[in-house]
Amino acid sequence: MNLTLSAKQWVAIGIVLMTQSSRVVHSQVIAFASTPARNHAYIGQEMKLKNVLLDLQRHYGVEIIFEDRLVGSVNVASSSLDLSLPIERNLDLLLGQNGLKYKRTRKNTFVITESKAKEAMPVKEVKDEAMNLPETQATGSLVASAGQAAQMVVERTVKGKVTDEAGGALPGVSVLLKGTQRGTSTGAEGEFSLEVPDGGQNVLVFSFVGYKSQEVPVGNQSVIDIKLVPDENALEEVVVVGYGTVKKSDLTGAVGTIKADVLQERPASSLNQGLSGRITGVNVSSNSGRPGGRANIRIRGASSISVSNNPLYVIDGVILNAVDLQNGSTPIDYLNPNDIASIEVLKDASSTAIYGARGANGVILVTTKRGVAGGGRVTYDSDFSIGVAPKKLEVLNSKEFLAVEETIYANAAKYDPVGWATGTKYTDPKLKRTNPRLFDSNGNPLYDTDWQDVMFQKAFTQNHQLGFTGGNEKGTYGAFLNYRNENGIVRESWQKRFAGRFVFDTQIKPWLKVGGTLGYTDQNEKQIDQLGGGGITTMRQVLEALPIIPVKYDNGAWASNRDYPGMEGGDNPLRVASERLFYLRTQTMLGNMYASIALAKGLEFRTTVGTNVINQRRDYFAAKGLQYISNNGDASVINNRYNSWQFENYLTYNKDFARIHSVNAMLGLSWQHVDRFENQAITQGFDDTYFQFNNLGAGASPQAPQSEGTAYGLNSYFARINYGLMNKYLVTFTGRIDGSSKFGAANRYAFFPSAAVAWRVTEEEFMKSVPAISNLKIRASYGATGNSEIPAYRALAGMANNVSGVIDYSVIFNGSRNIGTGIARMANPNLQWEKTQQVDFGVELGLFSNRLSFELDLYRRKVNDMLLDAPLPLSSGYSSIFTNIGSMENKGIEFAVNSTNIRTDNFSWSTTFNISVNKNKVLALSGGSDIFSGATVIRVGEPVGSFFGRQHLGTWSTAEAEEAKKYNMLPGDVKYADLNKDGIINDNDRTIIGKGIPDGFGTFLNTFNYKNWSLTVDLQYMYGNDVLDRSIHSAEDRQGIANSYKTVLNAWTETNQNTPIAQIRPINAYYTTNNDSHKVTDASFIRGRNLLLAYTFPADIVSKLKLDRLRAYASIQNFFVATKYRGYDPEVSNSGSPFDQGFGLYDYPKPRVFMLGLNIGL
């Protein structure tokens, strides 16, 4: 039937169609993270819910999908949020009170829907009395087009369900009849119902932001169920890189990222501890389990033999130099980990070259929390924990110790016949057991003290974090306070820390933004694992103290090993810990100010000023009479002052050209100045403990005060350009010129360039037909970086008045000695940077909408011009020269897998597995000669710092008596390999017997979520690393003068000859301190790093408690260790030197920690 429509009628039709089109087609108003996340506490006081959701989306780096009709008119009435919590908790608080809910459709996508699912309604028939359209009895709708009369068409209903790649319902999907304005959207359960014309070539178009659109012919189908495939281009995670940010999909380098919510899964006392196992290629090893124990970080292996191997740390743009403070601490140890919003680890040359001379060891960028627009609010987080010793080492009890002593006496004639023949050198030990304070009248011991039980304690720790945030669209602020009180599992060790930080950001003008950060930390600690004379530490005394003595006698006097005749060793460990005081107080201030000026569209100028100030004081006192530590009473005070400031300016230009070409360019310059001053005063001769270190003048024998000051500067120019073609082909060029005052006049400046390319294969048309592959990117990079972290003035001649007791410049004048000064170190005007060249090849692969993702990196890093303070012959008149002496390489593979194994409405299970394999090798040394340092060697073709010693073959048997005699040995003696076959066992028979550097390490992490519960099981592993346990020579080889390991009970006897432990004998009968393979143990391990169970309380309970959030959790850290190493823990490292990796010497045990925590929003 033909109809003639008036203009008024056509307008009416248009209004109706546009209204329906707006509801259906434009119902999805979506936002994606395309700017750096703002990681702060937030309150939305009378703010649009839509704006709050967009802010949450930026912070968490996720998709939040919603219909504008649902949230556009909703205001949030003073809802307090805390962005340190999981996003699910914040969505519960926001949506529940407004009749809304969310559904997680995949890993990083959340869909907002109404709480009660509403049936999807088809587009209604267009009716208007002004049109004078006749009514019809048939079911139909109006189909009109220009120049064509409206016709009534018979229709039928098509129903169905739309799901995601995992089979989960997708609400809010647009379902449109192709070629028309008719459509609907799916309900909360992903179901839809739509009336379509009967017959014809009907096609339904399904579209959903974040997923690829699909067209499905209707045909004769009345039920259509489809599964949408994610469009990974819709989500752009932003990563912080040096002097800017970049979309993760556009990265051409190897960069690892950790967000705050991941760090909070395993609360840690320092940033380094929090990094452990999180990122491939990053190996974290703690050198002590004491409170605040330092950790060493290696990114892709060791790169130097004498200067720092630690990465460069950059906190909110402020560079922390690798300065060594007291007790091996560094500036990063004093950053409050609770303040961290995100961490980026730059690993390859493409990403680290922007830091040039300081990027060779990798770069760790830390972004701290800031404020967010909204009304003021308060957050509070706390945790309480108990630490316990995970194990005890087996040492002799009183009965066993006395039995060993008797065996020594019985074997004395065999091993020391001359001494035995005198009749006075050895005494039957039973005759010594007459002290009534230690033995009864029959010579039986009165005590059987377990010194590990005495010294180990349940260590209570509390940690509190308070945050205040707020602001508006013009500016934000944040103030954060932290208090931590941690006790050690060994008595008399503790650490207390107070930290505060204030941040602000203000949009003064549309073109001008300024902001700043100021942080302060005051940390006090008492340490007990310090070396005394004779290598005495508290932990050594724990294992060597005699079991036959008590802690104190009845009269209150301290007991000592020396109370039993013939014994060696210091005082009992509790006295050592109580009367040797080692206090360390560190006050730090870290701050910066910035101004950002928008010069033109896409062109920004940024200027920043940053500073890092550290004041550190070490107070030491040892009471009179502590054996091997302080015979006369010692006291000292050392003060360190460290100041660093930097001034940086750079321009950034961003431009997209017709969506084909994209350019991001940056050009800048930087100045930095560092100075340090140390002074110390030492006094001896304190008869009592009254003054301690508080009045050094009270000591009878003051020493000459000492002081040292250094300063250096760095002048830099840097640039980077990122270019993208059609979002497929990516190129990055980076360059930095650094000039440092530390190096020779001829080599103070150096240029460090890099280049990288990447190909986003999944953007190619030929990949569109492979829906299983959701992401595939191939990248490669090559570049050069440097290592400038040498002490100042090493290029200059060094003055001294005494060089290691070898060169003495003092002179005798008028019968008295006068201190003189001479040139000890030769100048080296050609001294230059250590240079690192690195090539990296990487592949990123995502399958099944990234439910299964892989990342693989292959790299080779070569270090040239390694620096060493090389000794010179005395005939030169100098002791040493700092020079460039060789090269080494690291080659490795990094592999990571992330998978979502199960995901339903109420349950999910995800897994992360990663492995890092690194092979280190010295390539060249000047002159080709080995370099020795203690028990390690640097040798061409071998890993740096390999253990060097004799090959322990066991013990000589009685059947080998004649062969043993050739080496002046007896059956029962240690049997060493005669490697050079000269018939003599000496240092010429030493060889490489192990290495502390692991072959590989990684993490196996599983997370389970069920409704409001979550369970995390975090496992760590390492393999191919050895430990050289230097405690064996004292606790196993030197029987009878202190307590020993229980392994001596397996010593050689006539009936037990197949043993590695020599026959028990007097200490002066062939006692050796040789480093040998018996002291080296395979220290490969699997560790239960963290077991965490958490519960997030529902919104209704939280509301009744007048709170905005409430989360409780319980965790066990270090809940098991499986290893062959028999010491306390296989992760041992005495210092930051590559020479000392894997050295064990009476280490402070790592605790097993039971923790309870609360996250509360007020």
TrEMBL record:
Q: Which InterPro entries match?
A: Beta-barrel_TonB, Beta-barrel_TonB_sf, CarboxyPept-like_regulatory, Plug_dom, Plug_dom_sf, TonB-dep_OMP_SusC/RagA, TonB-dep_OMP_SusC/RagA_CS, TonB-dep_rcpt-like
What is the recorded name of this protein?
SusC/RagA family TonB-linked outer membrane protein
Membrane recorded as keyword: yes
The similarity annotation says:
Belongs to the TonB-dependent receptor family.
Q: What is its main location?
A: membrane
Q: Domain TonB-dependent receptor plug spans what residues?
A: 248-363
A GO CC annotation recorded here is: cell outer membrane
- Domain called TonB-dependent receptor-like beta-barrel: residue spans: 599-1018
Q: Which Pfam families match?
A: CarbopepD_reg_2, Plug, TonB_dep_Rec_b-barrel
What organism is this sequence from? Answer: Dyadobacter sp. 676
Keywords of this protein's UniProt record, alphabetized? Cell outer membrane, Membrane, TonB box, Transmembrane, Transmembrane beta strand, Transport
Q: How does it sit in the membrane?
A: Multi-pass membrane protein
Keyword Chaperone attached: no
Which cellular compartments is it found in? Cell outer membrane
